[in-house]
Automatic annotation (TrEMBL), chain B:
<dbReference type="GO" id="GO:0006614">
    <property type="term" value="P:SRP-dependent cotranslational protein targeting to membrane"/>
</dbReference>
<keyword id="KW-0472">Membrane</keyword>
<keyword id="KW-0342">GTP-binding</keyword>
<dbReference type="InterPro" id="IPR036225">
    <property type="entry name" value="SRP/SRP_N"/>
</dbReference>
<dbReference type="InterPro" id="IPR004390">
    <property type="entry name" value="SR_rcpt_FtsY"/>
</dbReference>
<dbReference type="InterPro" id="IPR042101">
    <property type="entry name" value="SRP54_N_sf"/>
</dbReference>
<feature type="domain" description="SRP54-type proteins GTP-binding">
    <location>
        <begin position="269"/>
        <end position="282"/>
    </location>
</feature>
<keyword id="KW-0675">Receptor</keyword>
<dbReference type="GO" id="GO:0005525">
    <property type="term" value="F:GTP binding"/>
</dbReference>
<keyword id="KW-0547">Nucleotide-binding</keyword>
<dbReference type="InterPro" id="IPR027417">
    <property type="entry name" value="P-loop_NTPase"/>
</dbReference>
<dbReference type="GO" id="GO:0005886">
    <property type="term" value="C:plasma membrane"/>
</dbReference>
<protein>
    <submittedName>
        <fullName>Signal recognition particle receptor protein FtsY</fullName>
    </submittedName>
</protein>
<keyword id="KW-1003">Cell membrane</keyword>
<dbReference type="GO" id="GO:0005047">
    <property type="term" value="F:signal recognition particle binding"/>
</dbReference>
<dbReference type="GO" id="GO:0003924">
    <property type="term" value="F:GTPase activity"/>
</dbReference>
<dbReference type="InterPro" id="IPR000897">
    <property type="entry name" value="SRP54_GTPase_dom"/>
</dbReference>
Amino acid sequence: MLESLREGLRGAVDKLLGRSLVDEKAIRDFVRDVQRALLQADVNVKLVLELSKRLEDALRNERPPPGISMKEHAIYVLYNEIVKILGGEDVKPPTPQGGRPLRIMLVGLQGSGKTTTAAKLALYYRDRKFRPGLVAADTYRPGAYDQLRQLAERIGVPFYGDPRERDAIKLARDGSERLVAEGADVIIVDTAGRHKNEAELMEEMREIERVVSPDMTFLVVDATIGQQAERQARAFAETTKVGGLIVTKLDSSAKGGGALTTAAVTGAKVYFTASGEALEDFEEYSPKRFAERLLGMGDLETLVEKF
Amino acid sequence: MFGKLREALSGLRESLTTKELGEGEVSEALEDLKWRLIEGEVAIDAAEGLEAALRDALLGAKVRRSHQEEDVEARIREVLLSWLRPLEAAPLENVVQSKRPYVMVFLGVNGGGKTTTVAKVAHSLKGSGLRPLLAAADTFRAGAIEQLSLHAQRVGVEVVSQGYGADPAAVARDAVERAMSRHYDVVLIDTAGRMYTKSRLMDELRKIVEVAGAHERVMIVDALTGNDSVSQAKEFDREVGVDSVIVTKADADVRGGVILTLAYELRRPIRYLGMGQDYGDLVPFRADEVVDSLLRPA
Ligand SMILES: Nc1nc2c(ncn2[C@@H]2O[C@H](COP(=O)(O)OP(=O)(O)OP(=O)(O)O)[C@@H](O)[C@H]2O)c(=O)[nH]1
Ligand SMILES: Nc1nc2c(ncn2[C@@H]2O[C@H](COP(=O)(O)OP(=O)(O)OP(=O)(O)O)[C@@H](O)[C@H]2O)c(=O)[nH]1
Ligand SMILES: [Mg+2]
Ligand SMILES: [Mg+2]
């Protein structure tokens, strides 16, 4: 099983590389293998069909540049398609600008990793000499307040919360103001998990965004999400201004194709990835490296440099 | 003599109104179904496995000419039901009577809904007049103990806890012993979420199961999971063992494809579907309902 996951696109690519000639059949096989691998990586079905159509067109109609074989060209086209969906160029995480504090809000499905990620982000900014503060605005999940408070204590950053307050909007507003007044320059607001069918919760999220007016709303996406990624991402993007993605749980064997889908649907780029529960298991990410993970190959770089 | 004639005539009528499905029709129907299954969150191996099984069931099958689509769909439904029916579980209230206390360990990957589900199951058992005892054996994740304790308070049940950093197996044993001496009916052990890729954490889970003398190892699977559900099912089963499954977050507009994946990869009873964040949002798994949802056009 794990074996077949690892094969994935790498298999498709190797098979293509092993062919003596790229004919009609080779193209068809390659496209089919790629389709299967992308589906196994949980990339959205429609996206897979679009992508494979563009791939097929390019392979049929484009001439590879001089010095580049048909096979290399095929792989490059595929890589480019994926990078394009992920947003192309690498992105820089936001920082406070012009002396104004940076306001970040985290949203996402239940259990996707928002609260843990809030603390990871705080640690990330603290390590870069900023003064982050954490706001607990999840009044829904029992123990959410304790969870974020304990994490804040662990890394020693200011925290705002009130376990008796039932109004998440008030918490978000009061917390952001209080922490700014206390000198924090990166405000990170943690919110309750919710999904598209929970209308009241979706509305609450809109209100929280209104009072916080975040510079960046991160949608936290679990790498193990399947075909639902599209509909859920759309609902989040229609309700809030999703500006970036953070992909969690990359320590699973999932390849995170749901994140690729989410990027395509929301137009937002992946900024960070998390691959473990420890607060250190967190890093900046680039669309290029993400594409390499999806393609199951770290040696793409050398090929890509040939172009 | 008339019998023979009648037989011949009815055979004739049949050949006019019915026909056997050929390769072309079958392939077309199955290709369409496969995409529908994949869009309905069925993992690709399971979708392909099902496609093969259905091909066998459909090739050469007799369908009415006038109702070809209906008849094909009916056959497909039959096969899906034959996969899913065996996964329907006996009512938990009855099962727990077999041992006293009946010990259940809840396990699964991070954030799937273990702690919430423990509370829901406690609520349901309590409603049936049984006495559940909870064990806070997630001594690792920030806020885990407060979360379970708050749930217990609201549901009105007791929790055994030894604080953060305690050995989770010791917490589990403590709870089972308390349940024996104080005559609780069921022990529900909440464990920390873990990735199957971390062998040390899988060892820890195995120890909890052993020390507690678990009667049922309940795996929690998030209905939003894609192809990773395959690794989850196989690895937890291989490393620790899985006796039953509860699929959570089935209210999140999902088709229920993960259930078909589990039927294909794991074949263990599915106790409940989690349908929301309230204590009452726990419904027994019904095969026909899932099949309806999977076959519903997109
Ligand atoms: N293995 C792994 N676990 C993670 C990662 N990020 C978060 N988790 C775990 O996932 C679980 C859920 O994380 P939370 O931070 O509580 O998720 P959440 O989105 O805040 O959940 P709700 O507030 O209930 O919606 C916890 O057990 C975390 O420790 C990751 O990158 N890898
Ligand atoms: N909508 C919905 N949310 C659910 C359901 N079950 C659990 N949740 C939510 O999912 C999130 C995670 O649930 P938990 O019970 O904390 O999950 P867990 O598996 O114990 O998480 P860890 O212990 O961190 O691994 C919480 O926000 C729950 O309210 C469900 O059936 N439907
Ligand atoms: Mg949270
Ligand atoms: Mg838990």
